[in-house]
């Protein structure tokens, strides 16, 4: 375990946290279930290896009513029966948007169109913004070596 290099940058520049908070409020109003947003948060944080976000997103997922088996198995969502088709579409979108450089066509039409089957334009906007915000927090935490379980 390493020592944090500094406070989280969103703490150092408090106006930035207020702006991010406003974005999060907007995302929450778009009609995507909290459970889906939290599963997306958890999966992205697994991909990026962000301890603080894994800790907080697992707790938030529990609070949103996500069962332990779904929290524990989200890394293998393709191989388990615990997720709806809509959740699978959101998780696939989250993985592709997070791993932009892994393929020539970062987000293939098939992935986007599958998500669009379950989510309207406002909800898709919320999902893409959620994916961006989670990746932002993962990068803030990883680059400054923030630790899980430590309050901001």
UniProtKB/TrEMBL annotation:
Q: Report the Gene3D superfamilies cross-referenced here.
A: AhpD-like
Q: Which SUPFAM superfamilies match?
A: AhpD-like
Q: Which InterPro entries match?
A: AhpD-like (IPR029032), AhpD_core (IPR004675), CMD-like (IPR003779)
Chain ranges of the Carboxymuconolactone decarboxylase-like domain: 14-95
Superkingdom of the source species? Bacteria
Database matches in Pfam families: CMD
Name of the protein in question: Carboxymuconolactone decarboxylase family protein
Organism of this sequence: Streptomyces crystallinus
